[in-house]
Amino acid sequence: MLRKGIALAVFGLALVGTPALAATTSEEPKDIHWSFEGPFGKFDAEQLQRGYKVYREVCSACHSMDLMYFRNLGQKGGPFYDPKYPNPIQNPYVKSLAADIKVKDIDSETGDDIQRPATPADKFPAPFPNEASAAASNGGKAPPDLSVMAKAREGGPAYIYSILTGFVPPPRGLNVMAGRYYNPYYPGDVSSFWTGPKDQVPKGGFIAMPPPLAPNKVTFDDGTPSTVANEARDVAAFLAWAAEPKMEERKEFGLGAMIYLLIFTGLLYASYRRIWRDVSH
Amino acid sequence: MSGHSTYEPKTGFERWLDMRLPIIRLAYDSAITFPTPKNLNYWWTFGGILALCLGIQIVTGIVLAMHYVPHVDYAFNSVERIMRDVNYGWLIRYMHASGASMFFLAVYVHIFRGLYYGSYKAPREVLWILGCIIYLLMMATAFMGYVLPWGQMSFHGAVVITNLLGAFPLVGNAITTWLWGGFAVDDPTLNRFFSLHYLLPFVIAGVVALHIWALHVPGNNNPTGVNVKSKADTVPFHPYYTVKDSFAIALFLILFAFFVFWFPNALLAPDNSVRANPLVTPQHIVPEWYFLPFYAMLRSVPNKLGGVITMFGAIALLFVLPWIDTSKVRSMRYRPTMRLYFFIFIAVCLVLGWCGAHEPADAVIPNVTTFTLGDYDLNSMVWLSRVATLYYLAYFLIITPVMGLTETPLPIPESISEPVLSHPASGPVAAAAATKKG
After folding, report:
1. A67 vs B274: CB contact, 8 Å cut-off?
2. Interchain contact, B247 vs A245, CB within 8 Å
3. Domain hosting residue B248, numbered range
4. Are residues B193 and B242 located together in one domain of the fold?
5. What sign does the CA torsion over B177, B183, B188, B194 have?
6. Contact between A182 and A170 (Cβ < 8 Å)
7. If both were cysteines, with which of A120, A237, B138, B269 could A70 make a disulfide (CB 3.0 to 4.6 Å apart)?
8. Beta-bridge partners for A206
9. Which of A50, A36, A67, A64 is nearest to A235 (CA)?
10. Looking at residue B80, which CATH number applies to its domain?
11. Does A75 touch chain B (CB under 8 A)?
């Protein structure tokens, strides 16, 4: 009986858990653990700082983050939050990070276009003036904005990590067009470029982004070894924070709300029992 | 049941007001002393839960509207601004977004409860129809609300659903053009959807008032389906049901909070975090979970108009259910065979939802190919949805009327309070049934 039950349960799980063959395939994102998982998870500020450095020195050459302001870096829960400066606009470190970057403005006297150092109130500047120029400089496909990338893909930060660390030489029999790179974690359909057996089409797709990370590409200030895996993990964590900068606040608030609700529910149950105790029903 | 009022104005002001607008009397009679069957189980608490859901959606929605910009260029960013820069904006938005799912979860429980206990039968037909109207309004409101963040799924969902109306012969194209305010889903569409999304909840609130009014004329049905016979069958609404409903509401809020605080994105499609782009169609366009069964029905019919008619027909059947059902017995507690068909019906609705979440050609049993029947392999979601859709339709059109005429129901208790004493012969059965709390 029990065995039959288990068999049925396994069968049920198999039904639910296995997506059927579709034209588009990709490998499941790598199973990677984050400090911000679960109801008590928190972002690791040092990891976010390293992640920001990876974004700034590597990703930002092609990818915009339109929804991000420099002040976000110094807000509560952000990578450079300093309790001495509750208003991030005044945080000197954030100011200096912003000042490293030039942003477009106009001269208020003459109206001429100028470049000036950014302030914490400025947005992260986009690397290209518009989508057409972004596409033209990147093999015909504009690099997507990264502001909410960690929410915009199935798997979230694990997907980002898997893409960044997932570039592999194409399997023998797979023809890759110039300017495209095979990545098993990128959803796609490579069957028309596959010359091998029809039932062994490799999973994944062709991505227009060349492998962006390399060992020692970014020097981490805290001495963390700059391997591709570390760079990828840290930038994925940074993007997870950028996609949902209020996640920590949300979880903390939720814990309080949940404790309140549990106590309140208990009291209501006791009242219910007391009020109904003399009614046969 | 709306018996004689026992309200006695206690202060001078209350006496003065009672002569002019007896609104305190109305509240007192309908929420304090209202005689309510004493055997209502927890399935009956969902009415109160739904009232709370509507309240939460309206309050959070009003606040969101203060910050939202209904324009194709700004809508997506304005929602993100709510999440990032508005004080507790994340809380308000996640309550509103998860709240829609919670609202539908509760309304489905409420509808299935009505079906099981025969709450749609005389004299509660109007009450039931008002409920069906609320459900339709909820679907329209939820659909338009989902379009507002102007993500990829918002946009392409709107395209798919509004295009369905184009299936109607002669007037179809005119309707879609009129609905879009142009020749494609664009800024005018977003603006009118925002306007209607703000309007409809208040229409719902109005119909809810009628729904409650219609409830208070015959009074509550109850798990036995037997009419209230005497005062011994009832308890005053307050404090008995205010406390029981409050307890159930608090439990429901725990589930709600679980999603809002810890898994707010579980019910949202990742594609909706990508700004709408009419030139890029998402791989799979899937509606929110609460529409999936109807989506499966829509796709189960090879003809577009046929699919649309099946989908709307599935809802229309609910409206005429009080006249389709031939059984004199309200509660399925005393209809063992019908109860079995009802549980299959629930399973079929879940299966339809599961099919709706997959592509039509996806295999039901993975990696098994049988043979092609008509357009698809027999082992495909579309064939499973066809079977399930047929059962859904047959449940209302064949099983419900035929069972009412042919089945032999169990003995029905004489009254709510004394199910055992009145039926000594069938005592154990009725007693077992009466003590079993859903």
Report:
1. no
2. no
3. 38-285
4. yes
5. positive
6. yes
7. A120
8. A182
9. A50
10. 1.20.810.10
11. no
